[in-house]
């Protein structure tokens, strides 16, 4: 097999989890044995004890996932989001193996790792696309920051002791001004993340929509809202606000927002591609990840009474 034909996999592992180190070494060995090239970021290779391995290739940090057929992630949702940063825009789908707690973005669990590697080798997976958000910040009319998000873009107060005042706009029209702890603008993928914790609805991932969820808003109308995928969301830090806010994208990338800053969020043209090993309904994922009782809280009492 020529170098051009060789199959490449980018491996991303949690740098501070010992279990990830041990599992990464095993994955590298099995993929290498199958004739595949395993690519690892240089700083991460050192962190997970793979720097001296002859079975890995050190990736260009600027183009780590280019030329790779898959990005395999060992870790929780935070590590998977880091993998998404590397994979987005390259065409390489992302496959997460959960080593964390909930792991909503993960496709398999640690106990299924051997079978997952076999599925990777045989290319036995489907690929689906998840919408992302394009995020820009302007101040005094000038573009001062741009980023993107798979889960959510969140504007939060920077100081614990006071609320932040935000004017909310949808499709160029003002909706309200809220004194609040912040506002979450999320994708359907992110509806089970921060937006869920803030009281937002769960939105099925095949629904094309965006969510706007206030956090502890001191207002008569501050309901979570679901808007169309082509809507334009904007938050402006009220100029008279004392103190500053902060914008977080997926909880990983942040920028300070001075009074008068304007955050605009629209649907991005560049999705994140996820590798899927099963075709089970999203309902099953909700039940499994949130440990929902399908029998209700009375079920255990009925079972005990019947025994």
TrEMBL record:
The protein's role, per its UniProt record: Involved in the regulation of the intracellular balance of NAD and NADP, and is a key enzyme in the biosynthesis of NADP. Catalyzes specifically the phosphorylation on 2'-hydroxyl of the adenosine moiety of NAD to yield NADP.
Single Gene Ontology BP annotation: NAD+ metabolic process
Known cofactor(s): a divalent metal cation
Catalyzed reaction equations: NAD(+) + ATP = ADP + NADP(+) + H(+)
Protein name: NAD kinase
UniProt lineage: Bacteria, Bacillati, Actinomycetota, Actinomycetes, Micrococcales
Subcellular location: Cytoplasm
UniProt binding sites for NAD(+): 77-78, 82, 151-152, 162, 181, 192-197
Species per Swiss-Prot/TrEMBL record: Pedococcus cremeus
EC number, UniProt record: 2.7.1.23
Family: Belongs to the NAD kinase family.
Chief location: cytoplasm
InterPro entries documented for this protein: ATP-NAD_kinase_N, ATP-NAD_kinase_PpnK-typ_C, NAD/diacylglycerol_kinase_sf, NADK
Gene Ontology cellular component terms for the protein in this record: cytoplasm
Gene3D superfamilies for this protein: Probable inorganic polyphosphate/atp-NAD kinase, domain 1, Probable inorganic polyphosphate/atp-NAD kinase, domain 2
MF terms in GO: ATP binding; metal ion binding; NAD binding; NAD+ kinase activity
Record: active site: 77 (proton acceptor)
Gene, per the UniProt record: nadK
